[in-house]
Amino acid sequence: MSDILLLIGRSLKNALRQPATIIPNIAISVFFLFVYNSGLNSVAQLPGFQGTYLGFILPVSIVSAAVGGAGLAGQTLIKDIDNGYFTKLLLTPTRRLAVIWGPMIASAIILTAQVVLVMLLALVMGLKVAAGPGGFLLVVVLAFLWGMAFAGYAAFMALKTKNAAAAQAATFAFFPLIFLSYTFVPKQYVTAGWLKVAATINPTTYVFDAMRSLLNTGWSASSLGVGFAVTFGFATLTGVLALWAARGATKLAS
Amino acid sequence: MTDQDGEDRTITAEGMRRTFGAVPAVDGVDLHIPGGRIFGFLGPNGAGKSTLVKILTTILNPTGGKATVAGYDVERQGGKVREAIGVALQDVGLDPLMTARELLVLQSQLFGTSGDEARKTAERLLVTVGLDDVDPKKRAGAYSGGMKRRLDLALALVHDPRILFLDEPTTGLDPASRASIWEEVRRLNEDLGMTIFLTTQYLEEADRLADDIAIINKGRIVAQGTPDELKRQVGDEVVELQFAQCEEAEQAYDALARIAPNRQASGHELRLYFGRAAENVPELVRALDGAGIRLQGLTIEQPTLDDVFLRVTGEALEHEVDEAGDGASGSPAPEAASATANEEVTS
Asked: I need a surface site. Which of A46, A168, A230, B203 has the fewest CB within 10 A?
């Protein structure tokens, strides 16, 4: 375990030395929160809307932070490969899992910190979390796992392409997923059939649902169960893909 | 197979092969390197040196063959191999955002050393490689090429490895940095009994450092032995003839076929190998006179590894670098200008 902790620590320290890699992502999340909340909050006046629009739109801001921030894992790996440090790490007894997951977990921790900042800002803006402090915490946990899932995807793309721009572009390719869902209005107000289909097969929908239930309506076993199951499944899939790509990328002997 | 202290420091390879697509980078290499020796692996760019190092250090799988390092199989016991070896590859592996101390402490901890011990190791190694007086806040990315090499070497030493792999450790270094690396390599070998596997494209480096040498060309080992053994293969003494024109050297090459069956032409020069050179000089001069070839200079010297390399590969290796330059500018002799009489050499 200690090798993973050491490599997480190294990635965190490096990220803090380059605030320019973190700040734009926070700025985008905050921008989303302000713009959509102030521009669309009259949606909350619609009949049947539960909770506040701030609680409804906050998960969009959180998930966009997670998707954008996860690219850091891929960038770290590509930089390591380019400057030879990746090979240097492979020449130590460190587990391969630690070499790949160190940057992934570090980027998930950083985006979790960003998410906490955005949520604190939402509290200042008047957010009342329906499920209380425990709900607040679970939203953070969900954001961390969703970040891990995207960090795994970013790491996979980085190890496959070995190209920073391609890996970053691949992460951004997932941004449309945020909008192919019940992003701005609840399900009952969406009339376009194609969007309903897209939202149903889009895993982001279930993450939004779980977070919104905690923020706006309180504890819901079904929303949380599905949300966590989808997130766990996605994170496991991309984590395994990243490790598989690492074996291929390094032609490891053992 | 093991040394007096019971630790295996040997390197062996049997029929080692590695192909990239259809191209064989390493093509059937056999090696038996006893513990505690400095082994020089000499060859031009693209000969297969780095590929073999990557296989022996477990970061590249072979296509065929078998190899052991420190007694462990490189394919099946990679973890054990990595614990026993230190590696400084041709391309240094440094995180440019970290300081030298941070890199050394982390590397040491990744080999299982506690934090305090790792910090002590870092300080000790910074002194060893002469980086202890560098600004501690300076990040590795801001280091010069020579400093990066020295730091990379220090990273390879954090766990007191039994075997050290150095892949072209001095390529691109200035003469002073090169000398300091050579000194350190000798010290590690003599004081700690470390087996050192050193690849180089510099003959001088192999000659000065290595106890044993293998010459690799196009993926195959073409000669192997101590530097003296290899030099004796071409003859005990060399007469070097210098001419004003390459054409004259080529004419002389033909004219001296009977007197000096073992000979090599390279550019303006012709090198002739004899048991006792001085006895043959009068006849050489007469033969050249008779053929109307004007001689510019004549020297008698000991054979060098360059002679060996030229003989076994038919090509000249990169010569030692300029004295004051950046060290990377050794220029290979043009292949077209070299001719050999390999088929006539008997050893």
From this structure: A46
